[in-house]
Amino acid sequence: MDSINQLLENAPIGILYESLEGGILRANSAFCRLIGYSEAELRRLDYRSITHPEDLPLELDLLQQIIQGQPSETTVKKRFFSRDSSIIWAEVKLALVGEPVDEDSYLIIFVTDLSDRQRVAEEIQQRREREALLSDISAQIRTTFDFSAIVQLAVVRLQQALDTDRVLAYQLLPDQSGTCIAESVSLCYPAMLGQSFPAECIPPPYIEAYRLGKLWCVANVEQEPLADCHRAMLKQVQTRSMIAVSIQRIQETVDPQKRTLWGLLVVHHCRTPRNWTTDEQQLVQAVADQVTIALEQASLLQQLQTYAQELEDHVNQRTRSLERSLQFEQLIRSLTETLRKDLSEDQVLKAAVEGLVETLAIDGCYASLFHPRQRSLEVRYEHSSPPSDQSLVGQRFAIQSWPEPCRQKLLAGEACIHEVSWASLRELPLPILVRCDRAGSSPLNSDSTVITQLISPILDNQGLIGALCVYHTQPRHFEPAEIKLIEQVANQCAIALRQAYLYRQEHEQRASAEHFRLFLEKSIDIFVEYDQEQRYIAINSAGLALLGYPLPEVLGKTNRELLGSSGQELDQLIAQAFKTGEPVFVDHELSLPSGTRLFETIYTPIADPAGVVQRVVGVCRDISDFRRQWQLLETQNHQLTETTRLKEEFIATTSHELRTPLTAILGFSNVLLQEFFGQLNPKQKDYIERIHLSGQHLLDLINDILDLSRLEADRLELEPQQIFINDICESVISLIQEHVENQNLRLEMEVEPELEYIVADPRRLKQMLLNLLTNAVKFTPAGSVGMKVYRSHQRQSDSIPDTVNFLVWDTGIGIAKAEQDLLFTPFSQIDNSLSRQHQGSGLGLVITRKLAELHGGSITLDSESGNGSRFILSLPLQQSSQPLLGLNYIAIKPMT
Question: Which of 98, 461, 762, 796 has the CA that lies 20 to 30 A from 366?
């Protein structure tokens, strides 16, 4: 037994006897040294108290299996708590001594210390984790150029690897102040991300040391001599221990004097003070180096991107320049093509103006043509972007109203750039139309608004033709290439306009020559051209037809050779035109194969610039038929005049012969009606009244016929005089008053108060009004009739006098539209039952119209069947007895 105890005591591994209930029965010296307890202390402890709680369930499960006999022994790794609470890794082999059912059975446990092997394994694991950390950061650097993402990954992984409370990246600014740009911090401690700290927090010696690449490691910051600001900052964030290492640029680390400190990578341990191992310090330095690489990579990337952007900008600028050059060339080519296809001035200007607006991206452009006589420019075409509802087209601007420098450059053939403020634009008549701003939402009405315009003259060696004006409603710098383009476009326009003018002139000349040739060919007049020997050198078809010879037999011959002796007189007249140089007019007869014809001829000499007559052009018109027709017309006119005279004599004689017995009939019937020779019975009185009325009707008819005859022969003489309008109206009303009362009609009259006088023939005016009122009463069975006199103004010309309108209206039977033209036809009456109840010759309205026209007036009608009629007699309002407008002054006898 002693030998066994001695062997147990001297064993190099720990041996422990444990009861099945978990009590410690015995422990050798090796186990006591391992966990720091004496054997006596262990016997007072339970086996469970020195076992790590996480390993206890597994060990109890193995113990239960051993008790059950399968297996009888087993091996497991577990952790023990030492006296100083540290953890000891050990390999434990359990074996059962005795039978499970025996009370004296126990477990023997062999404990092999694994602390060194575990420590080595942990160090290997930490090294692997640190290598993985650096590998991850390197991979992140390789896969992304986002410096912020790399720094954030570095601080997160470094916090995990060091099992510390805070890791942050601190960027120094030029004034030595700093800002936390990345952070990984435990939740129980305050965050520093985004906070800024003054330069005083890190003293200059520390900054210099960091610049030289030194690492600062502090196990307990409370025992370190720090600046007050630095200490307060660390205390504020609860830092107990820390490591700080510099982040520098690789390119500057070769020469220490040229190193630039970008910032710091800082590790804070807040729970307790901490002794940082060399490996941990090296890990922090390695991570800082990786961040430095990332920083340099980001800086190089930024430089590369800047260079790439500059290169891209240069390429884009060059591309834009090439595109602009291509656009310029395309515009010139388009103008040339337009010039080749179309010689229209408007089309050329349209292509130029629209092309400039689109190519130069300006607000607008217009083209104008120069009028030398008026010394002005007329806008012919305009284009703006965006389009405007206003237009300059058709407007003219005098060159003299332009600013002097601009006018001088324009006339000298130079382009002029002119900037005009809104305030000046309202005072100067500059050819520019201000529109909306670029967004098209509000008008440019600020006095500070500056409008830029470039005016390029359109001219050639013959002088100024017009001008091109481009304008922009904002200050605009025109580049030399743009100015050159505008000048080239102006030159193209000058060529096009000059060619268009020449083409139009040539076309007009050709058209004129062609029209003249066609005129000569189709003319019935004879056109002949003679040389200085009186020989034919040209003759039209009418002349050939008259002579009866073909053209070859006529050219080169004289009139004498063609016409014989009768042509000799013509040759003498032609020779006279050559000699005097003056036109010769003559009417002469020619004996032709077709007979003797009468001609009206003019021989016109044509001289060269020196004044020498080179040829004579003769124009002959055959007036034989015209002369015969004129003689026949003279005979017919003489016969018609004689017939008219005989008719008038007949009418005058007949009217005189009729008036004599009618006067006797009317006089005797009137005496009988007065009952001077005794009373009449009703029957006699009725017959005598009918005789009197019939005679009066016949006398009125004769008077109407005489008036109409005089009017048609223009022999009716007016006797105009100044008369009172009220007086003439009341006189006419009194004549029809009795008829109105007999028919129970209502009579109305209205005269405008301002109207007092009118110049007219009072007898004829009364006749016209009486005709109108008599008809109104005659064809109004019931209702009312009336007359209204008012004035109307003539605004077309001051030389045309105002008119006086006599409106005669009624509520009678009216006149249908289709029958109104018959009213002014002699001896015509509308055929209806009511009109046929009244006698009438149908001459009243005809005479009224002719008398109105003779006064220089007119008469109009407005009527509908069943709705009454409105006759308006309009006469010029003469203020004195001067000749009436529109009258036949030969037929009027003025008042003396």
Answer: 461
Of 699, 636, 640, residue with least CA distance to 670 = 699
Identify which of 431, 476, 483, 486 has the alpha carbon closest to the alpha carbon of residue 450.
476
Q: H helices of 68-215, where?
A: 115-143, 147-162, 204-211
Please give the biggest Cα pair distance in the chain.
212
Both structure tokens of 79: 């952790």
Q: Which residues is 758 bridged to in the sheet?
A: 723
Tokens of 154: 């570095």
Please give the full DSSP string across 450-473, using - where no structure is assigned.
Answer: EEEEEEEEEEETTEEEEEEEEEES
DSSP string, 632-700: HHHHHHHHHHHHHHHHHHHHHHHHHHHHHHHHHHHHHHHHHHHTTT----HHHHHHHHHHHHHHHHHHH
- Reply yes or no on whether the pLDDT at 806 is more than 90: yes
| Neighbouring C-beta atoms of residue 587, cutoff 10 Å | 11
Residues whose CB falls within 8 Å of the CB of residue 429, separated by 6 or more in sequence, listed in order: 397, 398, 401
Residue where the block lists tokens 């066609």: 518
Indicate the length of the chain as a whole number: 896
d(CA 896, CA 884): 15
Instruction: Dig out the tokens for 806 from the structure.
Output: 């006599």
**CA–CA distance, 532 with 840 (Å, rounded to integer):** 77
User: Residue 388, SS3?
Assistant: coil
Contacts of 675 (CB under 8 A, 6+ apart): none
Report the candidate in 560, 527, 559, 556 with the shortest Cα–Cα distance to residue 543. Answer: 527
Tokens at residue 745, please? 């009609």
Q: Residue 74, SS3?
A: strand
Q: Which residues share a beta bridge with 723?
A: 758
Cα–Cα distances in angstroms (integers) from residue 37 to residues 22, 93, 113, 316, 681, in the given order: 17, 20, 15, 83, 186
Q: Do the beta carbons of residue 171 and residue 263 sit within 8 Å?
A: yes
Handedness of CA 369, 371, 377, 381 (dihedral sign): negative
What would the pLDDT profile of 638-659 be if each residue is shown by its tens digit?
Answer: 887 777 667 666 666 666 666 6
Q: Is the pTM of this model over 0.70?
A: no
Structural contact between residues 180 and 226, judged by C-beta atoms closer than 8 angstroms: no
**pLDDT (tens digit, 9 = 90+) per residue, 353-365?**
888 888 788 888 8
Q: Show the tokens assigned to 544.
A: 């050939």
Cβ contact 409:416 at 8 Å: yes
Exposure string of 26-56, with b = 16+ CB inside 10 Å and e = fewer, is bbbebbbebbebeeeebeeeebeebbeeeee
What CA–CA distance (Å, rounded) separates 880 from 762? 14
Nearest CA to 482 out of 334, 316, 355, 359 is that of 359
Distance CA 494, CA 141 (A): 66
Among residues 90, 149, 80, 161, the alpha carbon closest in space to that of 125 is found at: 161
Give the span between the Cα atoms of 349 and 408, in whole angstroms.
24
Give the DSSP letter string of 316-327: HHHHHHHHHHHH
The tokens describing 427, both together, are: 């005072």
DSSP string, 389-411: S---TT-EEEGGGS-HHHHHHHH
- At 191-235, the pLDDT tens digits run 999 998 888 888 888 888 888 888 999 999 888 888 888 888 888
- 488-506, pLDDT tens digit by residue? 888 888 887 887 778 777 7
**CA–CA distance, 414 with 483 (Å, rounded to integer):** 11
For residue 895, the surrounding DSSP H or E stretch is none
Q: Letter for the amino acid at 214?
A: K
**In angstroms, rounded to a whole number, what is the distance separating the alpha carbons of residues 746 and 660?**
39
Quick one: the chain helix, strand, coil %, rounded to 5?
45, 25, 30
Can you say whether the dihedral through the CA atoms of 120, 122, 123, 125 is positive or negative? positive
Residue type, 410: L
Intra-chain end-to-end CA distance of the chain, in Å = 190
